[in-house]
Each structure stands twice: as structure tokens, then as C-alpha cells.
Design goal:
Elements lengths: L1 E6 L12 H12 L3 E7 L2 E7 L8
Antiparallel strand pairs: 1-3, 2-3
Length: about 60
């Protein structure tokens, strides 16, 4: 599992986002049979990624 947290930049007091980056991340993680969630609280956002581990050696 990997968690990434960062602050939301609000210098212009407006947040502009199309969400394309988040949709792309979700698609990539899903293709690897993983899970990704996003949370936003108190001026911070977090991304939580969980990927399966394959222990088989080929």
C-alpha cells in the first residue's frame, strides 16, 4: 500500500481541475488489479494506492 498526501494550493482562491489525471490514475491501477482512492480534507488531499503482490517467479 502507498499513501501520498499533499496540500491543496489555494493562492487564487479558485480550484480548477478537470479530474483527467485522477481518471487516468484510476484506469492504470485498475488494469493492474489494484485499488486507488482519493480523499480531501482540511486543505490537504491524499491518494491511497493498493496493488497486489505476485510472488511467483517465472
Amino acid at each position: 500500500m502507498m499513501d501520498i498526501t499533499n496540500v491543496i494550493k489555494t493562492e487564487n482562491h479558485e480550484i480548477h481541475s478537470t479530474g483527467i489525471g485522477l481518471k487516468t490514475c484510476h484506469k492504470i491501477i485498475s488494469q493492474h488489479k489494484g485499488e486507488i482512492t482519493f480523499t480531501s480534507t482540511g486543505g490537504k488531499y491524499s491518494v491511497h494506492i493498493r496493488l497486489p503482490v505476485n510472488n511467483k517467479l517465472t
